[in-house]
Amino acid sequence: MIRKFTCAVVSGALLFSIHATAQDNTTQQYLDTLAALGFPAPKENELVHIPPTLDDLEDADLHPELKRVIRRGHDLFTNTQQLRDEHVFNNMNCSSCHLGDGRMPFSAPIWAAAVTLPDFRGKNAHVNNLEERIAGCFTYSMNGKPPEYGSDNMVALSAYHHWLARGVTMYPQQPIYGRGFPPPDRPENLSYARGKAAFVEKCSICHGASGDGLRIDDQTVFPATWGDMSNNWGAGLVRIFTAAGFIKNNMPLGQPRSLDDQEAWDIAYYMSSQERPQDPRYTGDVQETLEQTREAFHKHSMYGQARESDGHILGDHDNLGGKPFLKPDTVRPRTFE
Which residues are the signal sequence here (predicted)? Predict the structure, then answer.
């Protein structure tokens, strides 16, 4: 019974509505369900938010046109492949990383971005707003070109983020429960061989032994974990600690928190040791690119390093995956001067 319910929770189908009659009881039921799946209880003073659903949207006191745009944003979020060859050049959807339609805690729930941005971001060393943060996902995770700022698609995606954050104060002072992909403690040693064996045993049934994922009728069922149709070398999940956090808290699908910490880190290390499309910040030289991006990003990835299994220098190539350009014009400095 618990296992069947787990799958539903991961999909977001049974996450509870914020409009329950007994709010406190609903929140406790929500937390009890997460605890049964192995997730930690909130720490003292952590902000717990149960994002609203599309069913809640039906009853919300919002303009019908806004409701339509929010639904469009949800549709884009869960089927980003409809923007294939225009804004998306791999097999990823937004919901490939942000599970449960972007609502699932410990799967980088997207509502947190709506209440904490604009903010400074170390990755590009300037203040980012929500649209620029979404643009980063298209640039790196989708290996693509973001929709124009202020475009219909960008406004729809932003509106969906804001809908999920309904009721949360801007710039909350409390730490947010379940934010991001919190990694388990890093083991003393990581092993490529152990990671490969664990990936084959625990992950390949969905993602394939070669990390190609699964597509049916031009729709992504399970995303590619590396290769031309996966995220590029600039995506957050190539950082080993980020991948370990995602894997520990969300994989295998329907069995969150079932891997031990060593397995999660070894699989992350193995996946980060595979090739993928070039980082859009590439200068033409992998070591120069590594030097420019090391402190803010690549010190946590395998980019520019020799692979343990064969000595191959990762990222030392000009392969752009499925797109005809290196970087979109959104990858640029911002000085506010």
Answer: 1-22
